[in-house]
UniProtKB/TrEMBL annotation:
Pfam families: QueH (PF02677)
Pathway involvement of the protein, from the record: tRNA modification; tRNA-queuosine biosynthesis
Keyword Oxidoreductase: yes
Organism (species): Candidatus Magasanikbacteria bacterium CG10_big_fil_rev_8_21_14_0_10_36_32
Protein's name in the database: Epoxyqueuosine reductase QueH
Reactions accelerated catalytically: epoxyqueuosine(34) in tRNA + AH2 = queuosine(34) in tRNA + A + H2O
Length: 176
């Protein structure tokens, strides 16, 4: 079976994707989200992803909480609106680490749950993945996860499994 590394931003966005992809690929979930602030919130979101992976027997890589690196990457972009340049930088930051890990660990494919997010445009995120794929020689599984009933399925599974759903995107600047 082909190996796919799925960058997972949170459980509500990824539960329907994990459910679908675990039958099509040798799936590994990749939790790399140093953008999430504060740390308590980071741990809470991560715990929900761990819970799903354990229940379904899916492998998970718990990456470092490299907040200093992430904070460095968005210096000067603090006042950008959501979906602006700071978010582009944030997508690039997380996907770069995912693609590098995929390459270094012989995954044929990588993907991200980011396009499941309500305000996350596939036409912005997927070109970042495709450019990294070309640069590193790993296939990016480009998908708009919002489509084909997956958002609805994700909402349903989130309620059924009593999964915590956050009220803001992740970084300090997105807390309203
Ligand atoms: S709003 Fe969300 S996507 Fe944008 S920089 Fe903050 S955490 Fe990243």
């Amino acid at each position: 079976m082909k190996k796919l590394l799925l960058h997972t931003c949170c459980a509500p966005c990824s539960i329907a994707i994990i459910d679908e992809m675990k039958n099509q690929f040798q799936l590994t979930v990749f939790f790399y989200n140093p953008n999430i602030f504060p740390e308590d919130e980071y741990l809470k979101r991560k715990a929900e992803v761990i819970k799903i992976c354990q229940e379904w027997g899916v492998s998970m890589i718990d990456m470092d909480y490299e907040t200093d690196k992430w904070n460095q990457s968005v210096i000067g972009l603090e006042t950008e609106p959501e979906s602006g340049v700071r978010c582009l930088t944030c997508f690039q930051f997380r996907l770069t680490r995912t693609a590098e890990y995929a390459k270094q660990n012989n995954f044929g494919y990588f993907a991200t749950s980011l396009t499941m997010g309500r305000n996350k445009k596939a036409e912005v995120i997927n070109p970042i993945g495709l450019a990294l794929a070309e640069k590193l020689g790993v296939i990016f599984y480009a998908e708009d996860w919002k489509k084909n009933g997956r958002q609805e399925k994700g909402r349903q599974l989130t309620v059924e499994k009593k999964i915590y759903r956050q009220s803001y995107c992740g970084c300090l600047f997105s807390i309203k």
